[in-house]
Amino acid sequence: MRNARLPLVGLLLLPAFPALAQNATAAQSSGGMTWLWILIAILVIAGGAWYFMTQRRGLRSTPGVSHDRVGGAAEQAKGAVKDTFGSVTGDAKLQTEGKIDKAEGRAQSAYGGAKDTLRGR
Question: Residues 16-69: pLDDT tens digits?
Fold first, then answer.
């Protein structure tokens, strides 16, 4: 499945190259060298996409951080934004939702911290 996406990346990025904007007569008069450069560019883009796709696999699993801690921090940030926006606009309901989200985020982060402590991390 992953190999099927690789050529698509190259094809989607093809319009970004100015060499493709040339008309067919200019490409024929240059002896077809334009297509060689296009092929090289496609290969470089596909190789870069393959490299970064295979390198991301190692970044997904972070053994030192609990997903609950990360989710809790995100929930706290969302709550802080809601709280601030509610206080600026004068919306008491939004401000209350923000405070609730911050409390939920703190609880989730504390739960993740407890799990990490039990695991010995």
Answer: 555 544 544 444 555 667 888 888 888 888 888 878 777 765 555 556 677 888
The string of DSSP letters for 42-82 reads HHHHHHHHHHHHHHHHHHH--TTS-HHHHHHHHHHHHHHHH
Q: Enter the pTM of the model.
A: 0.47
* Distance separating alpha carbons of residues 63 and 116, to the nearest angstrom: 10
> Rounded to an integer, what distance in angstroms lies between the CA atom of residue 96 and that of residue 104?
12
The backbone region for 98, taken as left when phi is positive above 0, alpha when psi lies in -120 to 50, beta otherwise, is: alpha
Residue partners of 36: CB distance under 8 A and separation at least 6: none
